[in-house]
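We now fix the convention by which a protein and its fold are recorded. Think of the row as the fold of the chain written in a discrete alphabet. Here is one such record, which you should read through line by line.
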Amino acid sequence: MANTILFVHGAWVTPLCWADFQSFFEAEGFTTLAPAWPFMKGSPAELRSNPDPRLAQVTVGKLVDHYAAEIRKLPEP
């Protein structure tokens, strides 16, 4: 079973910022995930031109809960 790396992006970028890292670690045999923040799905251009207003309500606590839920889906601790 391959180990999994979960990448978390910051406020001003999207999961695409991890693409090179994901490619590198996947080539080394790891499984990688880079889930988007809640309400932050889409390309950077789409997000700039039409941001979801609900994104303004995402708190640090909600982000922690979001990523904790993603981690609980993983097959290994």
User: Anything to note?
Assistant: Helices lie at 19-27, 44-49, 60-72. The radius of gyration is 14 Å.
